[in-house]
Specification:
- With 242 residues, the protein is mostly beta strands.
- β1 and β2 form a beta hairpin.
- It has one domain.
- The chain is 0% helix and 24% strand.
- The strands form three sheets. The protein has a five-stranded antiparallel β-sheet, with no helix packed on it. It has a five-stranded antiparallel β-sheet with strand order 4-7-8-9-10, with no helix packed on it.
Length: 242
């Protein structure tokens, strides 16, 4: 396969290790395949949620790290919970989850989640992007601002009936910007992420969108691992599935 990592096999022959990827939406363990010595990883934190109708949740952050060394056959922790998402540990690569009104923060690189609106029936914050912050949730009848490349969109309101969810972000690499929405729909997802929802419990977009006011459910978190890490790297070098 084009772009495969070449290893020296017994007897001096070259053996190709095919590229691959793994996606997780809940905590698990990843085992490095035979011949794989480096990976690139993207993490998205879960969106935030507020238990009251007075405010909305912040967006989860997006974080990535490239060309991280692994040992074939070894097991590595994948963690996805209400505090955020990480690979191995929080000092390797981690994406903080959103909380009530506040977006999460990334490490070592990536975008912070947008903030949720603090009062009234307002929108959730958008998930962080590969190169920029997620949009903030809109207040009253206002709308969230557009966001930097790859960010999720912040939610807007829907005529006082309840805030909408923030837009999510995708894990296949840098794509189109997310953005603000008009009345009746949630924040627009970026980089292939899902749009925020509306209704009696407005949900955040997948992945990482903040829940809208009226206790809207947040978008979940994710961890995606691609290899070989020296050839496939976020935000945009061979990041699609191969």
């Amino acid at each position: 396969m084009s772009g495969s990592l070449q290893l020296l096999a017994a007897g001096g022959a070259a053996a190709a290790v095919a590229p691959g990827q793994a996606l997780y939406t809940s905590s698990n363990t990843w085992v490095a395949p035979a011949g794989v010595t480096s990976v690139s990883v993207v993490c998205v934190g879960k969106g935030g949620q507020n238990s009251t109708s007075a405010s909305s949740g912040g967006g989860g952050s997006l974080a990535y790290k490239n060309n991280h060394t692994v040992v074939p056959g070894n097991s590595y922790t994948v963690n996805i919970d209400s505090a955020g998402s990480y690979f191995i540990n929080t000092s390797t690569v981690s994406a903080g989850a959103g909380s009530a009104e506040t977006g999460g923060s990334p490490f070592p690189a990536g975008g912070s989640g947008g903030n949720g609106a603090a009062s009234g029936f307002n929108g959730g914050g958008g998930a962080g992007g590969y190169t920029g912050k997620g949009g903030n949730g809109g207040y009253g009848t206002g709308f969230a601002p557009a966001v930097s490349s790859g960010g999720g969109g912040g939610g807007c309101t829907i005529g006082g009936a309840g805030g909408s969810g923030g837009g999510g972000v995708g894990v296949l690499g840098l794509g189109s910007d997310g953005g603000a929405s008009s009345g009746g729909i949630g924040g627009l997802g970026g980089s292939g992420g899902g749009d925020g929802g509306v209704g009696s419990a407005p949900v955040g977009g997948t992945f990482g969108g903040g829940g809208g006011s009226n206790a809207g459910a947040p978008g979940g978190g994710a961890v995606r691992i691609i290899w070989p890490g020296n050839l496939r790297q976020f935000p945009s070098t061979r990041t699609a599935n191969e």
